Amino acid sequence: MSFFPSSLEILIEKFASLPGIGQKSAQRLAFHILSLPDEEAQAFADAISTAKKTVHCCAVCQNLTDSEVCAICQSPRRDERVVCVVSDPKTVIAIERTHEYNGHYHVLHGVISPLNHVGPDDIKIKELVNRVADGHIEEVIMATNPDTEGETTAKYISRLLKPFGVKITRLAYGMPVGLSLEFADDATLMRALEGRQEIE
Predict the structure, then answer these.
(1) CATH architecture of 60-198
(2) Spatial separation of the C-alpha atoms in residues 71 and 79, rounded to whole Å
(3) Angular region, 156: left φ>0, alpha ψ -120 to 50, beta rest
(4) Digits of tens for pLDDT over the chain (200 positions)?
(5) What b/e string do you get for 75-99 counting C-beta neighbours within 10 Å, with b at 16 or more?
(6) Which residues contact 77 (CB under 8 A, 6 or more apart)?
(7) How many CB atoms lie within 10 A of CB 160?
(8) How many CB atoms lie within 10 A of CB 164?
(9) Correct CATH for 6-54 of 3.40.1490.10, 1.10.8.420, 3.40.50.10750, 1.10.8.60
(10) Which ranges in 19-116 belong to alpha helices (H)?
(11) Could you state, in order of their start, the residue ranges of all structural domains in the chain?
């Protein structure tokens, strides 16, 4: 027997399907939405709809943008000879917070994970190889998470890029093993960037 109207149950289920949101949190969020004035609730719904319609991958680096090319790739102040490879857009934000990195990015949108049925063709590796093949990139920094999947992805990509003669480095292991980069503090990320090492 349901305690709530079906439309409210559906709203709770939708919130509960989000990462890190349990049933109680989903209920709180759903009740909060219902308590909003109509115009605020509509603005919330419109923001979701607009983001889904307008946000897509940058044609160059695969980061999220609402234009053809993202602001980082368009910036003349960034060093386009250096590319930092990350697994997801959240990591771009984490690295940008350090104010220590001045190059470009490449967002993979995942990592190689056989257990989750994610192979090299399921993430944006081909796009990275094409960028490096153009010949303008001199260094590729592998900034995937320091866990099994991140290490596997970094090593796979480094093997693909070696024939192009680019310098391939890895973030230094000031990062605790198993830590997601988006949760690292600024000082730890800064030290990891400064101490990056070439992949053998």
Answers:
(1) 3-Layer(aba) Sandwich (3.40)
(2) 13
(3) alpha
(4) 467 889 999 999 999 999 999 999 999 999 999 999 999 999 999 999 999 999 999 999 999 999 999 999 999 999 999 999 999 999 999 999 989 999 999 999 999 999 999 999 999 999 999 999 998 999 999 999 888 899 899 999 999 999 999 999 988 766 666 777 777 777 677 767 877 777 76
(5) eeebeeebbbbbbbbebbebbeebe
(6) 102
(7) 16
(8) 14
(9) 1.10.8.420
(10) 23-35, 38-54, 71-74, 89-96
(11) 6-54, 60-198
Residue whose pair of structure tokens reads 């759903």 in the numeric block: 30
DSSP 118: B
pTM for the model: 0.80
57 three-state secondary structure: strand
From 173, 198, 174, 171, select the one nearest 91 (Cα to Cα).
171
Tokens of 36: 């909003």
Of the candidates 64, 62, 98, 67, the residue with the CA atom closest to the CA atom of residue 83: 62
Backbone angles phi, psi at 168, to 5 degrees: -120, 120
| Residue whose tokens read 């070439």 | 198
